[in-house]
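User: Could you write out the 3D structure of this protein bound to flavin-adenine dinucleotide? I've included everything you need below.
Assistant: Certainly. Input first, then the structure.
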Amino acid sequence: MEQSNVYDLIVVGSGAAGLSAAIYAGRYKMKTLVFGDSFGGYTTIAGPIGNYPGYIEVDGFDLMMKMKEQAEALGAQIKDDKVVGVARPDSCFLVTTERGDAYHATAVIFATGSEHRRLGLPNEEALTARGVHYCATCDGPVYGGKTIAMVGGGDSSVKGVNLTAEYAKKIYLITREREIRAEPINQEQMEKLVEAGKVEIILENEVAEIVGTEHLEKVMLRLPFNGSTELVVDGLFIEIGATPRSNLAKDLGVTLDERGYISVTPMMITNMPGVFAAGDITPLFGGFKQDITAAAMGAVAATSAYQYYKIHGNLCASAT
Ligand SMILES: Cc1cc2nc3c(=O)[nH]c(=O)nc-3n(C[C@H](O)[C@H](O)[C@H](O)COP(=O)(O)OP(=O)(O)OC[C@H]3O[C@@H](n4cnc5c(N)ncnc54)[C@H](O)[C@@H]3O)c2cc1C
């Protein structure tokens, strides 16, 4: 076994949870490797963040760059590569990547987060990036002076409305729910836009059809709004939550909950010895998905991985 590919800890995921785990593991002097197929995770597209302690406001991408710098300063290696398999042929874990490389580790932390949920409508995939979008921060600026619809009744969609209001002429917020449930500070900001006539909220309704050939032309609503089910918009942003990226953990034999999140103890320990999980991929803290909770879980997962490492030593070294 090539020693350069042997680590004490491999973290799958370079978002807030994974990088926080790497910072703590670095301070525990563990030889740590972090993989991320999209550096920084969701935080990089979150736009301005005003609730991360220590910053009045910080851009999400900048926050993740700071975490990366800190993790690297403490000795962690960070690779932009997708993990395609985690196996345990013996007491040591084998991690394989899309680039065809293989790595070994005594402990593994899954910090793989989640991915945007889709509406599941015909045409949705064909018109993705042609009027249909999943990231208001990334794609909102394209809609300067245009009319858009934002789907979802939670904090992400309300943040999306507030962000795109800087560019768009008119925004419709569509939700199946009876009311919007967002952080009060974000909701207050949106209410000012509603008062100004820039935003209209369509409650207890949903997008039934996405219409367009080369580009989105309009959406059809399930129920009439202002007398019509047709809503002509230039862009449709879908912010309806996320699905856990837990396939790798599942294939390894890690227990998931009924919604597909990795089941953990409050110390971020899974059912499988040597495997830990942190961040949005777990249902901990009642599923309160934030950078501060992800970072906290990463810190705890690294601490548990270190306890495991202290008890067992380098399980891969003995396999060489
Ligand atoms: C629009 C938006 C706005 C938000 N605003 C805020 C806010 O203002 N304040 C706040 O605190 N939180 C905010 N959040 C939530 C916050 O971004 C998340 O809670 C946080 O990103 C969770 O971190 P995580 O590390 O658990 O997961 P993620 O950030 O999702 O990171 C997961 C990582 O795992 C990687 N990964 C997954 N599978 C693999 C694989 N097979 N191989 C390699 N890498 C893999 C991904 O590439 C990524 O790097 C916002 C989220 C969104 C979407």
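The radius of gyration is 22 Å.
User: Perfect, thank you.
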